[in-house]
Structures are given as structure tokens and as C-alpha cells.
Design brief:
OB fold (Dihydrolipoamide Acetyltransferase, E2P); mainly beta; 153 residues; 1 helix; 5-stranded mixed β-barrel; globular
């Protein structure tokens, strides 16, 4: 079965919560409120619907999100949609929808952000499959000042 990849823009509904698994892996969870406005063509009135989604991220990104995002922050989230069922307190069955994030970043539509690059850590978890490891050797920058091997952030 193929993964359901999604990209959402919304506001954090609570401060991210950083925890650690028994093996020491960093895990951060946060809530995201995604608003959708539409106009009723017959009446001309605008209606707004809000969807609430839980977001989970792992590894160094989990620490970065916990350190950077706060309740009310507007963020972009890209990841895999995950739907699971659980047993409610009353004995019924509930459905939880969450996004397991591949990337989270600030929305720059109505704000600015200062980006600070962290050094990669040995043995860290990288959801992109790169596997952490030592920092890459820096190559000499060309005369124009931009090194094509340099990552953008």
C-alpha cells in the first residue's frame, strides 16, 4: 500500500511536547489547526472550517521543533498521513488521524524567521534516510561566493 503524503499549513494548537523513547530516540508531538475558508456562491457569505491534526516527528527534528515552535506558531508540515483506531474510555472505538512529519518549517506568509543551522550529530536519526554521521567536509567556495555543494540552510 502506498503512503498518503500530505502538506499542510496551520497554527500550533499547543506547545510541542518533547519526550524520549526507552532507546533514547527523541519524539515530539504537537497539535495543528488547519483552516479552510470558502464562500457560499448563493449567499456570498464566507464560512470557515477548522481541522485538528496531531503531528509527530522524530530525532533531531523533534528537538528542533520543540525548541522553535510554540502555541500559535504558523508552520508548514509535510509528511505521511497515519490513521489508527483506539479504544475509548466508554468502550467504543475511536479513530485518530496524525501526520508523521518528514519536514516542518515556519510559514513566511505573514512573518519572518531567523534560520540557525545545527551541526549534525553522530548516530542521530534522519527521517530522510541519510543516517546522521559526521559533518560533511567543507569544500572551497567558488569565486562567486556560493558553494554548489552547500546546503541552503
Amino acid at each position: 500500500m502506498a503512503d498518503a503524503n500530505v502538506t499542510m499549513v496551520g497554527n500550533c494548537t499547543r506547545d510541542p511536547e518533547l519526550r524520549f523513547t526507552a532507546s533514547g530516540m527523541q519524539v515530539t508531538t504537537m497539535g495543528l489547526a488547519v483552516n479552510h475558508r470558502r464562500q457560499n456562491r448563493q449567499s456570498g457569505e464566507w464560512t470557515e472550517e477548522t481541522s485538528f491534526v496531531d503531528v509527530t516527528c522524530f530525532g533531531q527534528m523533534a528537538e528542533n521543533v520543540a525548541e522553535t515552535c510554540t502555541k500559535g506558531s504558523r508552520v508548514l508540515v509535510t509528511g505521511r498521513l497515519s490513521v489508527r483506531t483506539y479504544e475509548k474510555r466508554d468502550g467504543g472505538t475511536g479513530v485518530a488521524v496524525e501526520v508523521v512529519a518528514d519536514e516542518i518549517g515556519p510559514s513566511l506568509r505573514w512573518a519572518t524567521a531567523q534560520i540557525t543551522r545545527n551541526e549534525r550529530r553522530e548516530g542521530g536519526y534522519d527521517s530522510g534516510g541519510a543516517g546522521g554521521g559526521a559533518p560533511r567536509a567543507q569544500s572551497a567556495a567558488p569565486a562567486g561566493g556560493y558553494d554548489t555543494d552547500e546546503e541552503p540552510f
